[in-house]
Structure formats: C-alpha cells, structure tokens
Amino acid sequence: MCFGKSKNQLGGDELAKSQEIDKMIRNDQRKLSKEIKLLLLANVEVRRLGAGESGKSTVLKQMKLLYAEGFPASEREEWRATIFSNLINAFKVILDAMEEYGIDFGNPANGEYAGIILAEPEIGPKQLLPRECLPAFKALWKDAGIVKTIERGNEYALHDNLT
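Structure (tokenized):
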C-alpha cells in the first residue's frame, strides 16, 4: 500500500476492509474490460467485420437491443414494410415449392390463405399489416404441408432464417 501501513501492520477490521476494497477494484476492472470490448465492437465499421451474409448487422442490432435503448419508433416503422415483404416472399417460395413437390396442405382450407399471400399485398412504412394477413401467416405456419415443405428447404432456395 502507498503512504500507509503495510498489510502486515493492519488490524483485523482494517485488513478485512482492505481486502473488500481490493475485491471491489478487481470486480470493477473485470466489468470495465467487458464494457470496453462492447464499445469497441459497437464502434467498428460494419463492412470490416466479415463477409457478406455473415451476420454483422444482426450482431450490431442485437447489441443495440441488449445494451442500448432499443430501436426508436421511427426506425421500427421503417422496417415494418421490409419485414412484411420478407414474410410474403418467404411464403411465396414455400408455396411454390409445395406445388413443385406435390405437397398438399394439411388443412385444405388453408388454400384460401395461400391466395392472400400469392396476391402479394404490400404496405408502406407507416401502414399497418392488412387484417387478412395475420390469420393467414398463423394458419399457414402451422399447416402440416407447409411444415413438411420447410423441412425440405435444403432442396430449394429457402432462406436459412426460415428453417
């Protein structure tokens, strides 16, 4: 210790207090080293982290969700149309594969929902999801024929995030 007694000269209470402070310092150093790593990761330019489709932006979005205050409402609104479009396109790929492989719907009534998807509804950034699409997404996702087709996703161009 600087400018004080050595640990050999400390009494029982003083020694305990000194050890407690040393422990707090070590814990703070561990936490700080993790915080610095997080800050470094957040400040690195995305294009330098890795190859295309390797999850760079996903990692940064997760960091933003976990360690920042999440996405502002305006940014969530901007992504709404993109997410909706991705859902429509994914179901179209699955429905096309069902037809190609001769797979029937587990529930034949779900063919009506397929028609909603195949009509390719679109929304703008500030528009709400069309009312008829949510039950279509839910019913189709649970359909045995859809599930069987997704299981065969390696045989056609099904995006990895749907398997």
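DSSP finds six helices and no strands in the chain. Residues 98 and 149 are 6 Å apart (CA to CA).
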